[in-house]
Amino acid sequence: MNDLRNLWEPGYLITDQNHDGVPDHINVNLQLPEGFTPSGLIDFCARLGFETTALTFNFLNGKEKAGYQMDFVNDEQITALKLHPRTKQFSFHYRSEQELSRFLQFLACEWPVAGIEKKPMEAIYFSEEEWWVEQGKRTPVAFPKAVENHLNHKNAIQSLTDLWEYDAFISDSTPHPTQKQSMSIDVDKSISQEIFLDICYGAARIGMSSTALKLPITNVEEADVFLQIENQNKEQSEITLDGNKIKVQGKGRSLRHAVRYLLHDKHWREGGTVSFWERPDLQSPPEEYVVSDLKWEGERETDVCLDLVRKHHSSEADEMTIFLSEPLSERKKIRNKVQKMTGVEKVKVYSSFKPIVSIVMEDWMESLRNVASEIDHIKFVCKEEMNEDGCELPIRWIQELYPLDEWLGEELSLHKDAVTFELNELQDPQVIMEVYDESGGVIFEKSILVPIHSMNYVDGKKRVYPVSNEIRWMVGGEICKQKAFATDRQNFYHFYQTHVLDSFLDELKLNEGQPLFDRIEIDVEMSEPEEKLSVEHERISSLEALHEDLYFNTLHFFDIHGKDQHFPGGVYPFMHVRKGSRPKAQIKIYQTENVGLKQGAVIGLTFQASHPYPTELAKDMNGVIRTEKVSVPPSSINVGKHVLKSKSASFTWIPEQSYKGKWIPVYEWYTETDETYLSRKKLSAYKPIILIETGHHANEVSSRPAVIELMDELSRSRSIDHLNIVAIPNANPDGDCIHKDMTRENPEWKHHAARYNAVGLEYAEHRYQSTPFGEARVVPDLMHRWAPDVVIDNHGIPAHEWIQPFAGYNSPPRFPKSYWLPNALIYGIGRKLQGATYEKQRDLLERIQNHMMEKVQGTILEEKNQEWMDRYKKYGHQWLPDIFPVEQTGSLLFFTWETHPDYESHVAISRFPDWVSADLTSEAADETVYGDDLKLCIEAQKVFNQSILEVISEKQSLSKYQEGGYHIIERKRPLTMKGETANENTLTHRV
């Protein structure tokens, strides 16, 4: 360095230590005379910190070697800064400490001055509020006054617990890329040099954590926050908060402890002790108790069946057909018993769960095999469902056929497209099977009319029409007598509706902002069909369907009837398949004491000489001041077993704890430094930030391992050095625990009871609100800490059929679109901002879509996507395109959702449209999958995420300027895509 004009440029006082193009190290050592405490050094250190993204407190009287040395020499003649390029030495000469203080302020606030001469300078002189260079004219020093600008909002302090919460001394109440700091620091001149240097370090940290720093910060009358540090003869020291004024008063060691706590220590979330008493794991967990314990036991439907046969048998019958919701082995036993009991030889016992599949596989298949060589194609003509009061779709009986086309194709060596469907609203049988030869002639046809039972849906308005049990006596193929009776599932579900849902709303106390109950645990034991099919992940499982009905129908019930109770409590249906068992259930409703949010603002902290942390705090409880003793800070947080470990993450941050008390860590990837302090908000001014949320719905299992794998791979290749990436590796740990519990017995079910959080809440809708749900606060925390450009939410969909007989034989009516069948192995959703000012965001979304489509082309992902799309169109989209929508970019299914700016929205790009560039969701067919299927879904999630990262340019437009008394660094948003031209780093002066 041979030019003081470049004093604040990277490479001199500040350097890029890790070679990623971002200043991250203070490269100078300031050697101060003993007892030397010029207040302007606080401003100088603040500017020093502002110019870097990271620092360590070792540059004041430090012993470690630095790139440059800076000393201070008392000089009766002149006050000046001189550079000695050959020795890399700076020397401050000063006539008085007061004049040097003003000179330091000037260099911090105004250097380099606008319009400065374009020639190298090795000395700057200062006297009587004027500055000049060798043979240059004297120029008066004029510090700019604050003016109205885009930073004119004020940062307010509500509590001392606000400090350093989001990686800055004081953060805005609303997330924003600009981290503004407007402070006044007033230091008692009698303070020891030891404490003074601690304050200088704190000023450097405050500057580092700012992207808009108002200078000077000493001797100013107007600021958002006033910090006053006084030397007082007290036995103990105190930090007090009064409006926007923070006072630190005391003496000796206790005062130093208070100053270091305030300015040096890190928040408890980062492993420090700031506000450590607020750690949720230090609070007593709420006690739970049982408010209701109901037991139900029914008669076995097989016993009911035999009893009905015994009482109502028609001696004329030469044939009988029975429908039972039982596994095949139990139905065979019933057939044998009925044959012996009645003497009727021709007895057929079909399943009343997915009866058409049962009939085709167990009965009609024999006829099909006999003519297999003659078959050209098979047509299933299905009755169009027309119940006006029903929840069922018009394609209800086509749904019943799934996945017969592929199963028949395998069994008869037919292409699946040789099995077709047709709707007919006039026919009585729900399904007619017509078998054709090559000439178009009908080889044979068969039909079936299955028994239906009508029940109320939980909304009290609609009806549902599940298949029920029935005995039919026939003579010559015609029914002469029939007796309907309920399945075990119907009997239990009726009990659950009438004795649980319809009764306990009035019995449970409503707590505003709290769940109605902690959880309902439903243990059901029944003899029911449970069979895995040879097609994809498909299975016949009536208890999985009951699990889904109990969960979603309960939530829907409270949506409608629950006195605005949108998070009633957890609903945990545990299903136990027990062949031949008597149906029984136990329903326990648990309650916990009211879970209150933190109350009272901390307005005072007391420090003793013997302890480096506060020993007492004062709280303002609605005007009443209460003091509390503070215990010793606990050991560091043990994240626990619920998070996949990352080998490559630069840092693990712990922002929140879930409703049930499990930590929710966050992994951060950035180019690492050896520095003690790092500003994420400052890093975001240099590089784009990508936020990836995984495990939001805990039964969607591929996103968590996918983000760790992807980041470990990309970190090794250093292909993301131009980005900072933040990931929530397990956003819903309570759901994750529920999922683990449920999969122990039924490992391949979807288990949607683990979808939402512990109390059945889609907690994303509670973001940016006062809420007891820590899982809802994590993304807002990260929007504060990082201000990400791109938000990615990795999700999943069922890997096999989702049916709910007590909700219309479809995915829940509360969803406007059907998720009955998977529509792809991987697909995307992008929020498309509307409005003339958001064209850049729309262009970026389109670029991402196209790049993602190109990456998927020619891979197994495209092949699998096409397989699922063929099914989806065949069974759903061709009949009901609005309920089974398709929107494609080339061969890639990708939905764009029109999104409008809404500053109350919980959606990132809607709430922050001016600085969030893209907001995307992935959906992989991963609900409770394993092995090679899980690996494929993991690969799909990785491709989705990597496609987005690859679109972002390595060069972004950066500006550094002064405006209205602030030093500002900012990166242009929306971000720059590859192929676009980014402006070179610019330094402008706007006074």
From TrEMBL:
<dbReference type="InterPro" id="IPR000834">
    <property type="entry name" value="Peptidase_M14"/>
</dbReference>
<feature type="domain" description="Peptidase M14">
    <location>
        <begin position="682"/>
        <end position="750"/>
    </location>
</feature>
<protein>
    <recommendedName>
        <fullName>Peptidase M14 domain-containing protein</fullName>
    </recommendedName>
</protein>
<dbReference type="GO" id="GO:0008270">
    <property type="term" value="F:zinc ion binding"/>
</dbReference>
<dbReference type="GO" id="GO:0006508">
    <property type="term" value="P:proteolysis"/>
</dbReference>
<dbReference type="Pfam" id="PF00246">
    <property type="entry name" value="Peptidase_M14"/>
</dbReference>
<dbReference type="GO" id="GO:0004181">
    <property type="term" value="F:metallocarboxypeptidase activity"/>
</dbReference>
